Amino acid sequence: MRVLALGGAGAMGAVAVRTAASSGGVDEIVIADRDLAAAERLCRELAGYPVPTSARRVDVTDGAELGDALAEADLVLNTVGPYYRFGLTVLRAAIDTGTHYLDICDDWEPTVQMLELDGQARAAGVTAVIGMGASPGVSNLLAAAAAAPLDSVRDAYTAWPVDVTAGGDEASRDQLLGPDGSPTAAAVHWMQQSSGTITAVRAGSLTEQRPLRPVALELPGGRRGTAYTVGHPEPITLQRTLKPTGESANLMVITPSAAAYLDVLRRDIDRGRLTNEAAARRVAKPHLPGVLRSLPRALANKGPGTLPPFFAVAVGERQGRDMTVLAHLNPAAGVDALLTDMARATGIPLALGMSQVVDGTARRAGVHPPDAVISSERFFADLDRELGRTGSAPLIVVEQEYR
């Protein structure tokens, strides 16, 4: 199978390419990027890897150029963002050329639009897996693991850390500004999803809500704390796969002061005082007046308490009794380094998800979220090996508790 890695020379794309090229299973990976020199450099770095690579210049805004590249591939890994601009375009082109598709889309708006192409993908025999990164991606598979013991799901939440893992603020800040001092696409995306309105699930239906809403959680093992809502695809896709009758949202595990400061930026964005780009700069380099304005809310906010940094929780019924199930990455397994490296945390899952499409395990025509087609058991076993873990601590822990 010939793989086209769109944006393959970028930070996340390069990790996915390295992972895929080192594990075999495909015939060739074409590293396609607008920056041909960067793609060629990566090819030279990967000389001698089990899977041969080549470089090609592709600009996804050029429809003919994109179509020609896709027509020569069996599968495309799309890491070209932002997805609200390019996700739908590349997926449509892949369906037109009959090319299997995976991406790391973390924007909820294009997620809705791409899911609407399910019928066209089925007719074309194309398997498309959207959001196969960390969050969404790993988070979806944790949610599936949490929901598995339940007969029915009432509430489902996914959560990821902002400033509460090893490395904390410094590790987060390094991913907010590029080498030239401008905010990264991820930072701008974060501001977009922390302002305006977001889509989440209430009473089993998709609804528009404001972001940064506190959600108090009581989890198995006596863990409890408060996390804050942020716009993301998980509640949209979990509403289809897990069918919660209550609430579903994506949450940030974040300190009270950081949540309060984000809320100040949210209000300024919503009032037109800040752009997403300007707000992203003020996250990377906090603005003293904004920090002072956030202090009263910081004192009132609840904190994460004993919540795990990266987890999913499902609340529902099992054999007529209320049960809460928690699935989380195990801190004892040494995953902090992965959680604070956005490129690896996103690119590695993309490559591991691809391997299940390549060998047919997850090959099912249509547009799917990861938990609909990716085997979570195999994925976490593959991730365990990819991380080179030699300890006995399990990579994920699933805990359940009757209420």
Task: Describe the model.
The protein has 403 residues and is an alpha/beta fold. The protein contains 17 helices and 16 strands. The chain has helices at 11-23, 36-45, 63-71, 83-97, 108-115, 118-124, 138-147, 168-173, 185-193, 234-241, 256-270, 276-284, 288-300, 336-339, 342-358, 370-373, 376-386, and strands at residues 2-6, 28-33, 53-57, 75-78, 100-103, 127-129, 152-161, 198-202, 205-209, 214-219, 223-229, 248-253, 311-318, 321-329, 366-368, 396-402. A 7-stranded parallel beta sheet has the order 3-2-1-4-5-6-15, with helices on both faces. Strands 10-11-12-7-13-14-16 form a 7-stranded mixed beta sheet. Strand 13 (311-318) and strand 14 (321-329) form a beta hairpin. Helix 4 packs parallel to helix 5 (108-115) and helix 15 packs across helix 17 (376-386). It is globular, with a radius of gyration of 20 Å. Residues 165-171 have low confidence and may be disordered.
